Amino acid sequence: MTNSHFATIPGIVNFEVTSVDVKHEEAFSTPQLSSIFGVEGGEDKSPQLSWSGAPEGTKSFAVTIYDQDAPTGSGFWHWAVANIPASVTELPSGSGDAEGTGLPKGAYQLANDAGLKSFLGAAPPPGHGVHRYYIVVHALDVEDIGVPDSATPALLGFNMLGHTLGRAVLLATYER
Fold first, then answer.
1. pLDDT digits (tens, 9 = 90+) for 82-96
2. Cα–Cα dist 135/66, whole Å
3. Band (1; pLDDT cuts 50, 70, 90)
4. How far apart are alpha carbons 141 and 42 in whole angstroms?
5. Within its chain, how far is the Cα of 170 from the centroid?
6. Tell me: the pLDDT tens digits for 14-51?
7. Which residues contact 82 (CB under 8 A, 6 or more apart)?
8. CA-to-CA distance for 29 and 174, rounded, in angstroms?
């Protein structure tokens, strides 16, 4: 993860996340692209995610998808889900729809940087080059991370800082 924004947060155990929809260091599939932001064929469909090997003491998970290459000065949050119970180790494809239909009881979505409480697919500016999308499952030492559903993904990240036991990272890319 060269130049990863996680490089400045040491001491975290790594575990594994996989997906039937996303291959590590490969381009997002068409369903994970953004029709909302005008990518032809895009469906804004969150990818299926499965994880294993979370550290002992994990009491909940959070999932985030972040584009650190977005030309905003602060990156772009595409999806953030908080308070996933520790007993859950998979989210199905499409669980990040506006209703959160595939999310487990107690979990909730925060608004992404487009202001939507759902997954927003990849849509970098045309000609801007390859963007990297960090799909991350965070293993936390608390059942409730303590952010309201009106919080931003950045506040979620801030609150997770002292509660993160482990992290599983899958890197997707996309360019148009």
1. 999 999 999 999 999
2. 7
3. very low
4. 36
5. 9
6. 999 999 999 999 999 999 999 999 999 999 999 999 99
7. 62, 107, 108, 110, 145, 147, 149, 156
8. 9
